[in-house]
Amino acid sequence: MPRPIAATIHMGALRHNLQRMREAAHGRTLWAVVKANAYGHGLLRAARAFEEADGLALIDLCDAQKVREYGWKKRILLLEGFFDETDIPLLEKFDIETIVHNRHMIELLKTNAPYKSLKVHIKINSGMNRLGFLPKEEEHIRKELCAIDGVEIMGVVTHFANAEPSYDQGKPATVSLQLQRMAQMGDKPSQLCMANSAATLWQKDVQGEAVRAGVALYGASPDANYTSEDLDIQPAMTLSANVLAIQNVPAGEAIGYGSRFVTKRDSRIAVVACGYADGYPRSTPDGTPTYVEGKIAPIAGAISMDMLTIDVTDIPEAQLGSEVELWGAHIPVNEVAKRCGTIGYELMCAIALRVPLVEDEQ
C-alpha cells in the first residue's frame, strides 16, 4: 500500500476561483498564471480547470510546448521571456508570446529576423527593480521592436512589488508610486497589463486592458491579513496524511529531535506520515495547528524528514489511521506559512515529487 499522504487538488475550487477573478477583472483580459507547476497543483490539471481563462502565463518554454501539445489553443505568455536564440523559432512554431525585458533580447530578435509572426510584450520596471526597461525608455523600445520585420507588439507589462492593502503606504515601492512612474511613458500604450492578484482584488485605481491572476486562483489570499473567505475564494489544495502511531507519553518527557517539546501533562502524541522531505517545513514551530477528527491538534516537536508529531491528548477520536489535514479548508496554508516565517506561495510550490497529487471535483 502507498504511504498514506496526498495533496488533493480540488478542481471545483480552481474553477470557482477563476470565476471570482474573472468578476474582479471587470471585463479585462484574464491571464491565469500557471508557473511552478501551477503553484504545485499540476500544470495540465490547471490548464483543464482554467479553460475559461483568456490565456496562460508561465515561465518555461518546455511547459508552454506541453500545454500546446495537450490541446490548449488560446494565448500563452512567457513571463521571463526567452533565454536563448534557439528558443525563438519555437515561439513562432507554437504561437507563444514572450516578454522582452533587456537589450540583449532585442539584439537576438534583430539577428534572427525576419519572422512570420513573433508576438512580444515590453516589460517595464516601475519599481520592482528586477526585470524591464525604465518607463521613459518605453517609446524608444517600442519603435525599435516595431522596426524588426515580423515582430508584433502585443502589450506592455509591469509588476507591483507591494499591492497588498496591508503594505505600509509610508514605505517605498507603493502601488501609487509605481503608477506615477508608469505615467512617465509618452503615449499611453495599448494592452497594458499591470495588475496581479492583489491589485486585481484591491487596487481599483490600477487600469489596463489585462490582469494576471496567480495565487488567488489557488485559493490563498495574496495578503495574509485577509482570509480566503473574505475574498470568496476556495483553497484548492489539501495536504493530508494519516496517523502512523500513537504514543502515550508521561509528563516531563521530550518529543522528537532536539527535544524542544516537553510534555506538561500525560499526553497522547500522534505520529503523522508527513515530514520536511514531503514539503512540510522543518521550521514549523510547536503549536502550529493541524486538523484531525474535526478538531485542532497542535504540532508538538520538531518536524522530521518523514514524520511529524501532534498532540491529540484532547482528541480521543484520533486513532491509528486518522486523517490529518496539514493545510486546506480548515487550516489555511497562510496560517502555516505565517508560523514558519514564510508565505503560502512557498509551501504550495514546495510540495515534494514523492507526494501523490490526486484530484476531486469539489
TrEMBL record:
UniProt KW Isomerase keyword = yes
Q: What is its EC number?
A: 5.1.1.1
Which pathway, metabolic or otherwise, does it act in?
Amino-acid biosynthesis; D-alanine biosynthesis; D-alanine from L-alanine: step 1/1
Annotated Alanine racemase C-terminal domain residues: 236-360
Spell out the InterPro entries in the cross-references: Ala_racemase, Ala_racemase/Decarboxylase_C, Ala_racemase_C, Ala_racemase_N, Ala_racemase_pyridoxalP-BS, PLP-binding_barrel
Which metal ions or organic cofactors does this protein require, according to UniProt? pyridoxal 5'-phosphate
Q: GO CC annotations?
A: cytosol
Q: Which reaction is the catalytic activity of this chain? A: L-alanine = D-alanine
Pfam families the UniProt entry points to: Ala_racemase_C, Ala_racemase_N
**Signal peptide start-end:** none
Residues annotated with N6-(pyridoxal phosphate)lysine modification: K35
What Gene Ontology biological process does one annotation of this record name? D-alanine biosynthetic process
Q: Which PROSITE patterns match?
A: ALANINE_RACEMASE
Keyword list (alphabetical) reads: Isomerase, Pyridoxal phosphate
Q: Which of this chain's residues are annotated to bind substrate?
A: R130, M305
Where on the tree of life does the source sit, at the highest rank? Bacteria
Residues at the catalytic site = K35, Y257
For this chain, the family text in UniProt reads: Belongs to the alanine racemase family.
Protein name per UniProt: Alanine racemase
From which organism does this entry originate? Candidatus Aphodousia faecigallinarum
